[in-house]
Amino acid sequence: MTTAQERQPEQHSFEADVSRLLHMMVHSVYSDKDVFLRELVSNAADACEKLRYESISEPRLSADGVAPGILVALDEEAMTLVVEDNGIGMSRNEMIDALGTIARSGTRAFMDRLNAAKGGEKAELIGQFGVGFYSSFMVANKVDVISRRAGQDGAWRWSSDGKGSYEIVAVDPIEAPTRGTRVVLHLMEDAKKYTGKWTVEKIIRDQSGHVPFPVRLIEKAGAEPSQVTDGAALWTKSKTEISKQDYDDFYRGVSGQYDEPLMNVHFKAEGRHEYTTLAFIPGSQPFDLFDVERKGRMKLYVKRVFITDEADLLPRYLRFVRGIVDTSDLPLNISREMIQESPVLSAIRKGVTGRVLSALEKLAESEQENFYKFWELFGAILKEGIYEDYERRSQLLKLARFRTTASGDATRSLAEYIGSMKEGQSSIYYISGSNLDQLNASPHLEGFRAKGIEVLLLTDSVDSFWPTNAGDFDEKSFKSITQGLTDLDEIAGADDSKNVPDAPHEVTAFIDFARDVLSQEVADVRVSSRLTDSAVCLVASEHGPDRQLEKILQGAGRLQSASKPILEVNAQSELVKGISSIAEATFREDAAWLLLDEARILDGDKPTDPRAFAGRQARLFKLAIGQPE
Predict the structure, then answer these.
(1) Which pTM value belongs to this model?
(2) Strand, helix or coil at 286?
(3) Which of 61, 330, 483, 628 stands 20 to 30 A from 126 (CA)?
(4) Angstrom distance (rounded) from CA 382 to CA 318
């Protein structure tokens, strides 16, 4: 029993300017008030971990045989929330040292001491900076900490309102835990929700659901405790111990979705850096997949305690992946909410990315139906990596699947495309646009279809960007069929005749005439090697963006003005031959402009001057019916 003299409260001032520092802790360091519970549970888990390790050399500390655990108790009437553990506890001096100084971490000191010792296991401890406890003052106007160190008789209470001072007083051991620490939060009025069972239980499950010690919850005074977590993390178990149902249930919890995952990636990395990953490919598109910030949603745990889901553990083109990464050696910053950029984090990101992509490669090889479903859901996102990730570009190109002029409703890999290339073909041809129907109707395809040359049909927004940045695949370059001259003459096709017969003299004369008339609108007018049926089409110059990319850049304000296109004319078209045979100047000029507008319409655009377009059409209609001007 303690004497009355020993129970006189000792008044202490915090060693730092606590008013300023606590204001920073409460208002700046943490953005989410719920985090206080995570921090207290983490501290309790650390205390249990310390007891386990100190008991190795001093078995008497846990001689009672009671398993370590954490208890959370709620009292709505008293407006209190209690977090209690039966871990190592604190002596009077340890209280002053751990709770009386901002940013002095008892855990850090313990680790330093443990690491200095020779041999022994390495402790799995969470706290590193000694500030998490002070997040309690975000929700409490007073905090009491009652603790008894394992192996000692005396117990002490630390109390503070967080405004500059604290007091320590000895308490009757009967009022304290047998060993361990009890933290009592006297909640503010606006923090009443933290006395509700469902609110608190959800926070514990979400943020501390996998700490290595069981957490129990007492809903109200006198009630029996219910178990919230069992102290076992799914990802720490052997794969042979985990059923498909276990994986599916965990996926739904970590992703917030109700579908079944297409696949999971579960592995433990060992070596220079140790971490465990449990990642899932969803069976449907997450609602935030096309969020403009393109943030990932992989959750980071440190020693099975949730830290953040904004650690960029995967590149943004894998943002559809859901799951967790748990590590013991990742450095954290002062709040644990933001992760220091470090070689460790970079190594984890690289390792997890590589394993996810390797798993997708295996899926493509062994489960083609599931991979097809994956590609339909997330192919457009994965292709962003071809543009962004130079290091893995070849791997991503192998994974990519495309609709082509030869694939129908199916998709084909680039390896399959190259396997079907014609003799003399050195490029992988593609055309990009907004939809398949528009692309299939494009006049640019006519010459390629005539020779049986396959063309990739690219309809995703990113498809206008990555081909220009992809380099070669299997020593074959990517070439837009709407840009520059074609090399169809060099490719053996259904017939090996010259692709561009000599143009009739009158057609050549008309092309020269049109080049002069349209000089302000087009860079050139020339005979086409790609048209077989249509009279005209527009192409981009050999250098610079192709037609579709130029439209996107101009629409996004990235180009002040578009470059002049090239008007290609089918010299064998009966329409062009007929127009060329008419010598009347006004007719020839109107025809040149109408052919340009026709090419624009075929390209998905509108005539630049609708009134002039209508006037020219009217004059031709009048001429066709024999009506004079």
Answers:
(1) 0.78
(2) coil
(3) 61
(4) 6
